[in-house]
Amino acid sequence: METPTRNPAAAAGAAAATRTKRPAWRRRQALIAWAFALPFSALFLVFMIGPLVASLLLSVTDMTARDMRDPLAVAFVGVDNFVTLFQDDKFQAAILNTIYFVGVGVPLTIVVSLLIAMALNNGIRRFRAVFRVGFYTPVVTSIVAIAVVWKYILEPDGLLNQALSGIGISGPDWLHDTHFAMPSLIFMAMWRNMGTLMIIFLAGLQGVPTEVYEAAKVDGASAFQRFYGLTLPLMRPTILLGVVLISVYYFQFFEEAFVMTGGGPLDSTLSITYFTYNQFGYGNYGLASAASYVLALTIGLVTLLQFRFLRSKG
Amino acid sequence: MSGKTWIRNAAVLSAVALTLTACGRDGGSVGDDAGASDLTSISAGKATGDITIWAMGTEGEKLPEIADAFNDANPDAEVTITAVPWDDAPTKIATAITSGKTPDATLLNPSALASFVATGGFAAVPDGVADATTFDAGSYESTLIDGTSYSVPLYVDTRTLFFRKDLAEQAGVEVPQTWADYPAFAEALEGAGAEEGLLLPTGELGFTEQVLIPFIWNAGGSITDAEQTTFTLDSDEAIEGLATYQSLFTSGAASDTGTYEPWGSVEERLASGEIGSVVEGPWMVPTLKDILGDEYASKIGVATIPSGSANGQSWLDGGQLAVFRDAKNPEGAWKFIKYLSEPAQAAQFSTATGDLPAVSAAWEPAGLTADPTTAVFSEQLKEAASAPALPTWNQIASIMAGYGEKLARGTVTPEEAAEQMQSELTSVGLD
Asked: Do B24 and A75 make contact, defined as CB atoms within 8 angstroms?
C-alpha cells in the first residue's frame, strides 16, 4: 500500500486544527445529534428538572397555600424547615416507620424472590409460564383492587383469621392493632413486589453457566455449598440491582398505607412520603418540600452504601 | 479549579442569589389589593354570556337540570356544569386559583372556604344576590369570614342519631336525652341483638373530628374563643367533653376500632343489626329505605343527638357556591346563584339530590316538613354548629382526629389530650 506523502506544514496545521477547531462535518454531526436529543431534553428539563429545582427552592422558604396567587412573595428561611421537621414528633415516627418497613421488607422480599426464582429455574418443570404469570400479576394489579381484597382477608373475621382459627389460633385485628398493622403491610408489599425481583433474578440465574455447577458437583459440593459458594457470588451484580430497585421503592412506600390503614392505627404506618402528602394537603408547601428532600437524600445515601458493599470484587 | 470554572460557578451563584432577593414578603395581606375589583352589586335584568360552574358528586349530576331551566329563562346566557369528583376538588380549585384560569363559580364544603379565601381566590358576595334571612342561620354563618360573606349556601346537612327502633322497643328502652345515659341504652341494644351498641368512627380523618368536636360543644367548650384569636381547648368544659367521649369507649358502648368504611357499609350494618345506633347524616335515609323497603319505618328511628351538660349541638356541614375572583363572567355566575336560591328552584334541587336545602322557605315545597325523618333534621338544625372558619382547618381537623383515636384507645387521658391539642394547635396557628 502506498503511504500518502504528507507536507509537514500541512500535517502540523491539521494537527493544530483537530486540537482547537473541529472539522465542519463533525460539528454538523454534533448539531444533528443535539437536534434529535432536543425534544426529550426539553421535556425532561421542563417537567423533571424544573419541578426538582422548584421544590428545592420551596424547601428553603416558608411558602404555604396562602401564597398560591403570589408565589414569589415568600420569605427565605434557610434550614428552618429542616430543623422543624426533625423536631416534629410525627416526622420522627415516620422516619422510624420507614426504617422498619425497609429494614424488614427489603431482605424479606429479596430472599423470597430469590427462592422463587431458583425454584422456577431448577425445580419446577411443568406450567412454568403459569407460575411466572401468577407471581408477576400482583405487580401489575391496581393497588385499589389489591386493597379491597386484602382488607377483606385481614378483617377480624376475614379469611386469614378463619384459617388461623381452624388450627386453633385466634388472630388479632390485623389492620387495627398497632403491633400488627406494619407487619401486615410489609407482607402485602412483599407479595406485591416479589414478581419484579423474581423476573430479574431468573434472568440472572439463567446467566450463570451450567458447566460451573457441573464442575462443582463433580468436586463433591453439596447443594448448599453450591448455592453459597457459586450462585450467590455469581449473582452479586443481579442481587445488587434487585436490592437497589426494591429499596428505592420501599423507602417511598405510601400506597399500601394510604389504601389500607390511612396512616395506621395511631400513626404506626405513617411513612415519610405519607407525612409529606399530609403536609401538602395542609398547604405547608415549604415544609413538605423539605421532607421530600430529606427522603431523596436518604435514598441517595443508602443506595451509595449498597453499591459500596454489594459491588462485585475484582 | 481553572479560571473558566471559577467564573462559571460565580455566575451561577450570583444568579441564584439575585433570584432569591426577588422573593420576600412585603408585609401586606394577600387579599387586600384584589378586593377593589370585586363586584359590589349585581345589575337587574337577565344574565348573559357563558357561565361555567364546577360541582361535585350527586349535586354535579343534578344541577344541569336546573341549569337548563335557567338557560331557557335567560336566552343570552349558557350555563355549563362540570362534574368534579369530591376527592379531586380541593386540588383542582387550588390549581385553578394558582394559575388564574378558573371557572366562574364552584361548589365547596364550608370547612374549605376559609383557606381559599385566605389566598384571595374568591370574591365577596355582592348585594342583591340573596338576603341573609333567606337561609338557615347556621349555614349563613358558615359563609362569613371576618364578617364578610364569601359564598352562598346551597344545601345543609347535620348529624342526627339513627338507631334500631325495633331493638330499643324490644329492650324496653327509649333514646337517652343525655350522653351520660347512653352506655345503658347501648347495652340494652346489645342485649336485644345488636353486636355493637354504638358506632363511633375512630382514626378516620373526615369523620372522627366531626363526631368528636360536638362532644366538646355539648359540654360548653369551644375550639377557639369568640374573636378567633386563640385556641381554647384546655378549658374545663373541653376536658369534660373529651371525658364524655372517652367514657363511651371505656363503658363498652362503642368499639375502639370503629370505622365508617367501606363507604356505604354503615347503612348495611345498621339494617342488619351489626350496630345498634350511629350518629350520621341525611344521606343514610335513601340507602336505608332501599335496603329495608317496607321495614324502614318500623326498624329505623331517628332522633336528635343526646345533650351534654350544656347543649345538644350537632355538626353542621353542607355545600356552598363561591365565585372566583378571576372569573370571566362573575355577574352571570351570581345571577345563576340567585336563581338557585329562590325557594322553587331550591326545592327542585333538594328533591333531585336528596339534600336538605339551605333556603328555609324551600322545605315546604320540597315536602320535607311532612316527612317525619326530615322533621328531626329540621329540629337538629336549630341546634347545630359548624367548624370555626380557619384557613388552617385541614391541619387542625387532622390533629383533632388523631387525638380522637388516642382517646378512643385510651392512650391519653382527657386532660393530657386537651393540653397537647392546645399546644399543637397553637403552634399550627389560626391563619
From this structure: yes
